[in-house]
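Consider the following input, taken from an annotated entry for Glycosyltransferase 2-like domain-containing protein (Gossypium barbadense).
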Amino acid sequence: MANNNYVPLFETKQVKGRLFFRCIAAPIFLGICFIVMYRVMFFPVGGKAERWTWIGLFLSELWFCLYWFLTTVSRWNSVYRLPYSDRLSQRFGKELPGIDIFVCTADPLMEPPSMVVNTVLSVMAYDYPPEKLSIYLSDDGGSDLTFYAMLEAANFSKTWLPFCKKLKVEPTSPEAYFRTASEPVNAEEWLSVKKLYDGMKMRIEATTKLDRIPDYIRKQHKGFHEWDFITHKHDHQTILQILIDGRDTNAVDIEGNPLPTLVYLAREKRPQYHHHFKAGAMNALIRVSSRISNGPIILNVDCDMYSNNSKSIKYSLCIFMDEEKGDEIAYIQFPQKFNNLTKNDIYGSSFRVIQQLELAGLDANGGPMYIGTGCFHRREALCGKQYEKNYKVDWKKLNDTKANESASLLEETCKVLASCSFEHNTPWGKEMGLKYGILVEDIITGLSIKCRGWKSMYLNPEREGFLGVAPTTLLQLLVQHTRWAEGHLQIFLSRYCSLVYGYKRIPLKLRLAYCPFNLWAANCLATLYYVVVPCLFLLKGFSLFPKISSPWVVPFVYVALVHRAYSLGEFLWCRGTFRGWCNDQRVWLFNRTTSYFFAFFQTILKLLRYSQLTFALTAKVSDENISKRYEQELIEFGATSPMFDILATLAMLNLFGSFGAIKMVILDADEDFKVLDQFGLQILLCLVLVTVNLPVYQALFFQKDNGKMPSSVTYKSIIFALLACTVAMY
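Applying the prediction step yields:
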């Protein structure tokens, strides 16, 4: 197509407020310079302990400055993409590519089959030609309960898909739709479909609760015979069943329209073989799908991330199929958003600023990270292809790639592709597919793709593309962040560190933009130092900050106030609330002092080979009482954990420090408040930390339900805090 006739399928626009952000960043940098000057010029000449404490605080502040610089670089020039799906339809008509959709689940207890079914049904109902859709479920739990749920989904889809098309249903997850939609005026069909869904859901949940498939159901499908040979979920043969063969003319819905292909896969598991967690499951799906449907575009979603926007495929194709810029794009990442957030986001799970500004900043610098879900991939790039400058895609040629064999023959021939030994002495997990060896395999996979010359883009439409389930207890959140932070730090300390691995392969700004995420865990040391040491030295009577009457107090106050005020403004601009921002700051502190702390030391132990790589699933269900407290926005502390020991001890330490400071100020009232002048910033820091920890005190002393802090944690925190204060005072 000639350039003068070229009409883009998407548009790139600058995020608003960039100039204001830069105007704020410049004086903050100046204030940081003055803080560094103060630490150098007023280095104490007294005792050895005071000097080392001063050095420790100086190093902590230098770390905060470095981290702020890295974050600022990543957000210096943020952009967003605006796709035009109407142009896509006009230009390509029916010549749209096949799409293979991967849904991954691993445990029917932590990820209930009823939830998995809703995700599968939601992606089957995309606003896209059904004959071009192929959905693959990877069941790493090897559960016949999940297989049964998929059979139910295959049957219900015959009614659900035409219903979605007729009423233009959004979202296309039945559970989410019927939970939020109001009954229409002409409700007969609506009630009929809802009744069918409720019946399906009841049967799936009944078998899940029973924890076995009744004999009369097992006789209804040949696939159940596969479980006759299984003794353990980590020791079984490959189970591959094509539940709906989209090529079959009889595979139609109740209105005679074709259905998407639906495939169930439980890859082979043997105790003597490492299965490589989700990365191994994805690679097995890539190989199996290449024989059955071989769609040039792959979408992967977690089993709890249902489709919330039926046009997501077309939005992504606007980028992939753009004649001028699309051929260099390897993957398109959607943000990870959640449908169960409370009004004020009690656990800070929305990542508002990260998703709207920081990932958009990575996009401007060369492309966002691949975050493991809600991502559309070019199959060739995911399978290790090197990008070439003059690379052009022949979409028409790629459209005719489906297998010609029968479904039963494909089931047998494809099993070897999901066997344990298939990857032995092959590039899979190294140069092909998702990479192995690090907890956050998605991040290094995306980085390695970009280092092969490809680019990626970030798509954040007004209506969210995907919605998942956020943690509903504090411990779930901390465990999840421990895994993320540990994986990111492993990357930074490995050969996949963006600064090293990306050298001369990707732009410097993109290499730097990866670092704030890779260094999450490293924040723990400086944060813990700032939380603990100023409080203890306040009791000791040693000032670590300039006097209130000194002009040197200005840079400290300016940097702290302006930085936090701008943070609040950003959060509100990203459609958050003031209380939501307060919760976000609290969770930020909790993560840095607990989950990041454990992630940091677990990573060090693994580097020293004192620990092995593990993968922790986050539960997607909670009991009724926990859910009720979550909806009331009460933080859940009702579990015994070393993380809660640390949180409670730090909270009590700053409470005792505040009491000591108040006592000092009262006793000094007759001396023109010299104590307040000398220790004003330290006292303020203690009081701020006490305010942040108010929910912890409530859980320690006032909460009476099962969400309160365990008594053992309360006693330990008081004893540890008193011991620390006593040692500091003598």
